[in-house]
């Protein structure tokens, strides 16, 4: 095509003029998409009315009619009569104002709340550092070990002048972050090994990996958690007791590992056989082939389902409530057990939900960016 | 394909050395895929510096045969010796053989997530333990020889098929192999790109590389082959110089095959 234009002598032409406003721009877009006929105009108006009503209702409830704080009686009981008089026409954010520290940190000693608060910030900092490709090398290992050690010291205490806090008193957001971070950080490498093992030519390894995936995936997470908390101690010698949180952590890790392994295996299967053969023909060893050729390609392919599973498990950590571990959701539920706050569940769940949403949305956004970045080589 | 009807190109001087021990020996090799007998008593000796072209109808076992030489496929009976080392389950022997045998595939099999340069330096760095800088210099040298040094920073997906196949050849050469195996290197290419790949292979032949090449490019076979091997249904049916095989076929099977591929051109 360029040849044709190059060989055509320049003809006198009128100066280009911009397209009429009815063809491009916001007005044209509105006409094409919202008001293209009488039916679409009617649907647009009806839906527009519903949206405006819903948004106005929410704004009324959440902001205009909302009560942000209530007086506290000298005995320490919150006077929630004003909230109750609203009869649901406004949100009682006072419950969040009053109880947010309990929801975030559970029964952790009140005057020590700065410790779990720092722990949460450390987790977020760890996520941010780990997400930067600049740090995707060996430096990440000491960073993780250092951060997790600091987190352990802060949570337990007992040294450096920090009072000891037993694990039973931990709760809220740090528990959710601990379960999710350790769970996924351990389950991900485990899942890669299992996925590779499932494709191994050694029958023993293959059978072991298939059994693991099918057994773990075949039972509900709740039953695994029950087993971890009730049955597992029966198998241990008398007097030996593994921390309840650790047991739940192991159950979650094993469960997530089985699911992730199948996701990773999907990626391994999607690679053409020629990639394996080319690596073999060049004399690369099994681990060189896997590390340089196979996994980098397979994992890029499965970023969407991988992150899907990650997000799912971040939220599934809330199931530990059934074995009495105080994660964020359980802490929220417990916060409204107190008689004066009973009946304000919606506000609490909105608050807790927003925290989950922040983390999950960040994961989702990050994965989209990562996908685009890592699949640059596919663009021509 | 013009190459097939221009058999008069200058024959590349043979670098075959009959005094040295053979580079490859296949001795009564048999292989089955399940019940299917795909290689039947295949005997083949390739001398150092010899260029062998293997041809035959599809399903004749020619690809399987050369894939047995670097053990992408395992044979079940008989012996295969490469450079004096027998192929067996011994992993060390296999590693040694794969280091010295380069392979070029029909579908290129470049690593799409690595740049052209990284494709070429990966094996020298990790298998030959070459320093990175030296490996990159070597890679640039070979990329220059296949005439695409300017593409070094690109990804395979950004190159044409012919360019990709030339990268694949350069990648194999970076391991400094003693033997090169070509498995239908031009079959997946658009016609206008076949010549650039064949030219690269002719250049390699002129340098005295020991080569086994599965191809239907008769012009290429006439130009460089010391010997043409015709396979059909898992057997070596005829073998000889290009003139003997193409101009004076002895068996009905080869006559039929030649008439079919010549009609196709």
Automatic annotation (TrEMBL), chain A:
InterPro entries: AA_ABC_transptr_permease_3TM, ArtM/GltK/GlnP/TcyL/YhdX-like, MetI-like, MetI-like_sf. It is a multi-pass membrane protein. It is found in: Cell inner membrane; Cell membrane. The chain crosses the membrane at residues 38-64, 113-129, 141-165, 171-196, 208-236, 248-268, 348-366. One of its GO terms (biological process) is amino acid transport. Pfam families: BPD_transp_1 (PF00528). The keyword Transmembrane applies. The keyword Signal does not apply. GO terms for cellular component: ATP-binding cassette (ABC) transporter complex. Residues 173-367 form the ABC transmembrane type-1 domain. One of its GO terms (molecular function) is transmembrane transporter activity. Its main location: membrane. Keywords: Cell membrane, Membrane, Transmembrane, Transmembrane helix, Transport. Belongs to the binding-protein-dependent transport system permease family. HisMQ subfamily. PANTHER family: INNER MEMBRANE AMINO-ACID ABC TRANSPORTER PERMEASE PROTEIN YHDY, MEMBRANE COMPONENT OF AMINO ACID ABC TRANSPORTER. This is Amino acid ABC transporter permease.
From TrEMBL, chain B:
InterPro entries: AAA+_ATPase, ABC_ATPase_HisP-typ, ABC_transporter-like_ATP-bd, ABC_transporter-like_CS, MetN_ABC_transporter-like, P-loop_NTPase. The keyword Nucleotide-binding applies. GO terms for molecular function: ABC-type amino acid transporter activity; ATP binding; ATP hydrolysis activity. Residues 24-258 form the ABC transporter domain. Keywords: ATP-binding, Nucleotide-binding, Transport. Gene3D superfamilies: P-loop containing nucleotide triphosphate hydrolases. Belongs to the ABC transporter superfamily. This is Amino acid ABC transporter ATP-binding protein. The lineage of its organism: Bacteria, Pseudomonadati, Pseudomonadota, Alphaproteobacteria, Acetobacterales.
């Amino acid at each position: 095509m360029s040849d044709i234009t190059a060989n055509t002598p320049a003809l006198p032409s009128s100066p280009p003029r911009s397209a009429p406003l009815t063809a491009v721009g916001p007005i044209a877009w509105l006409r094409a998409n919202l008001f293209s006929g009488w039916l679409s105009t009617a649907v647009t108006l009806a839906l527009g009315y519903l949206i405006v009503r819903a948004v106005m209702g929410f704004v009324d409830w959440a902001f205009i009619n909302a009560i942000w704080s209530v007086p506290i009686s000298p005995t320490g009981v919150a006077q929630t009569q004003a909230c109750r008089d609203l009869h649901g026409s406004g949100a009682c954010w006072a419950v969040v104002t009053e109880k947010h520290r309990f929801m975030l940190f559970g029964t952790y000693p009140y005057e020590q709340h700065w410790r779990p608060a720092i722990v949460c910030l450390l987790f977020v900092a760890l996520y941010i550092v780990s997400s930067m490709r600049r740090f995707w090398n060996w430096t990440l290992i000491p960073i993780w070990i250092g951060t997790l050690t600091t987190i352990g010291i802060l949570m337990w205490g007992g040294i450096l002048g920090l009072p000891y806090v037993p694990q039973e008193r931990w709760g809220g957001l740090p528990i959710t972050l601990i379960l999710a971070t350790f769970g996924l950080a351990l389950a991900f490498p485990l899942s890669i090994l299992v996925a590779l093992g499932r494709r191994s030519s050694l029958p023993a390894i293959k059978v072991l990996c298939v059994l693991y995936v099918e057994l773990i995936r075949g039972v509900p997470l709740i039953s695994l958690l029950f087993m971890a908390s009730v049955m597992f101690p029966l198998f241990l010698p008398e007097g030996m007791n593994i921390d309840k949180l650790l047991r739940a952590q192991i159950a979650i890790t094993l469960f997530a590992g089985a699911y992730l392994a199948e996701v990773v295996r999907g990626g391994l299967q999607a690679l053409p056989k020629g990639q394996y053969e080319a690596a073999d023909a060049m004399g690369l060893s099994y681990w060189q082939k896997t590390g340089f050729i196979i996994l980098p390609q397979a994992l890029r392919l499965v970023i969407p389902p991988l992150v899907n599973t990650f997000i799912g498990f971040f939220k599934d950590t809330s199931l530990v409530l059934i074995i009495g571990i105080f994660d964020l959701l359980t802490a929220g539920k417990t916060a409204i057990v107190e008689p004066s706050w009973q009946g304000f569940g919606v506000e609490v769940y909105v608050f807790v939900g927003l925290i989950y949403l922040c983390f999950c949305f960040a994961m989702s956004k990050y994965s989209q960016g990562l996908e685009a970045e890592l699949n640059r080589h596919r663009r021509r | 394909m013009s190459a097939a009807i221009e058999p008069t190109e200058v024959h590349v001087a043979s670098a075959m050395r009959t005094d040295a021990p053979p580079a490859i020996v296949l001795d009564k090799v048999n292989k089955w895929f399940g019940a299917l007998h795909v290689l039947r008593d295949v005997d083949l000796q390739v001398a150092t510096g010899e260029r062998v072209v293997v041809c035959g109808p599809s399903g004749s076992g020619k690809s399987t045969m050369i894939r047995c030489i670097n053990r992408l496929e395992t044979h079940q009976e008989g012996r295969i010796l490469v450079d004096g080392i027998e192929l067996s389950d011994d992993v060390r022997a296999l590693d040694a053989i794969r280091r010295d045998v380069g392979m070029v595939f029909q579908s290129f099999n470049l690593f799409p997530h690595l740049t052209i340069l990284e494709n070429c330096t990966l094996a020298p760095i990790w298998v030959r333990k070459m320093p990175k800088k030296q490996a990159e210099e070597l890679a640039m040298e070979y990329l220059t020889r296949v005439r695409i040094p300017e593409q070094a920073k690109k990804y395979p997906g950004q190159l044409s098929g012919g360019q990709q196949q030339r990268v694949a050849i350069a990648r194999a050469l970076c391991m400094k192999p003693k033997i090169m195996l070509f498995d239908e290197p031009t079959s997946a290419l658009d016609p206008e790109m076949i010549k650039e790949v064949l030219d690269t292979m002719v250049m390699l032949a002129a340098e005295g590389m020991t080569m086994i090449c599965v191809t239907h490019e008769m012009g290429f076979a006439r130009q460089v082959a010391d010997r043409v091997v015709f396979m059909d249904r898992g057997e070596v049916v005829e073998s000889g110089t290009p003139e003997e095989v193409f101009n004076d076929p002895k068996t009905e099977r080869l006559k039929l095959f030649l008439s079919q591929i010549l009609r196709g051109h």
